[in-house]
């Protein structure tokens, strides 16, 4: 009976893994000045991104938000007040992965951990 309860808990926890992606949102900052961030929930087919605008080799603007997957790894050229700049979309797929404070090597896949836990419980309990 205990095995069954633990297995059900692991399955229920795994179901919540498929929930919408959470990202940080920073509406706008210039010259890498720290920006006030909020939490946003992405829509289907969106990922977290850090969007940077560069002109003459210098980072001018930066934003963080959810973006459509088709913008990832692409550059767009735009102009504002006579200054042309290139916008680059750096995308990632993990809750709050567009935070500059995270270390990629420190992330563990929740799905993998839950699957391993489920296997361990069914074999050893």
Automatic annotation (TrEMBL):
Transmembrane segments: 101-121
Glycoprotein recorded as keyword: yes
Subcellular location: Cell membrane; Secreted
Membrane topology note: Lipid-anchor; GPI-anchor
Positions of the UPAR/Ly6 domain: 21-111
GO biological process, one term: sperm-egg recognition
Database matches in Pfam families: UPAR_LY6
Main location: membrane
UniProt entry keywords in alphabetical sequence: Cell membrane, Disulfide bond, Glycoprotein, GPI-anchor, Lipoprotein, Membrane, Secreted, Signal, Transmembrane, Transmembrane helix
Signal sequence interval, chain numbering: 1-20
GO-annotated cellular components: extracellular region; plasma membrane; side of membrane
Family per record: Belongs to the SPACA4/bouncer family.
Xref: PANTHER family: SPERM ACROSOME MEMBRANE-ASSOCIATED PROTEIN 4
Protein name: Protein Bouncer-like isoform X2
Organism of derivation: Pogona vitticeps
